[in-house]
Amino acid sequence: MAETLALDSTLTKAEQYRQLLPQIEALTTGEPDLVANLANTAAALRQAFGFFWVGFYLVKGNELVLGPFQGPIACTRIRHGKGVCGSSWARAETIVVPDVEAFPGHIACSSDSRSEIVVPIFKEGQVVAVLDVDSNQLNDFDHDDQAALERIMQLAARWF
């Protein structure tokens, strides 16, 4: 696949995700390297939607460790159950945060982050990583984001 995305910004967000998913699948099909696939997925999501920060944290022992990302410098390690990422890992579920200031224990890697969605990646029933997406706008994530990002993370599970 070419290293460009074909996106139509006149479409609804749900339609844009439907347009993006097969492109991410084509971009990663046949590539066995986890880091390459995570990096291109983070880049594609940020390019498609202009999110403030998009990246992955990988489960290593009792911590999430920063993986490939797009955006400003980020927190390197997050403990199990801490912040939005650690909470998503502990609960094994997607967490949508309309206002990060209102989330108890939020870890502020950047004061510019205003809302967040974190989606776990499962392998054999265990969380092996999380996708973290931050916006510099309040209440920027909804059901369309959750449904589409969960589908993309089901694809990502194949790379682990």
From TrEMBL:
One of its GO terms (cellular component) is cytosol. GO terms for molecular function: L-methionine-(R)-S-oxide reductase activity. Residues 33-158 form the GAF domain. It comes from the Bacteria. InterPro entries: GAF (IPR003018), GAF-like_dom_sf (IPR029016), Phosphatase_reg/MetRdx (IPR051330). Belongs to the free Met sulfoxide reductase family. PANTHER family: FREE METHIONINE-R-SULFOXIDE REDUCTASE, GAF/PUTATIVE CYTOSKELETAL PROTEIN. This is GAF domain-containing protein. It comes from Hymenobacter montanus. The lineage of its organism: Bacteria, Pseudomonadati, Bacteroidota, Cytophagia, Cytophagales.
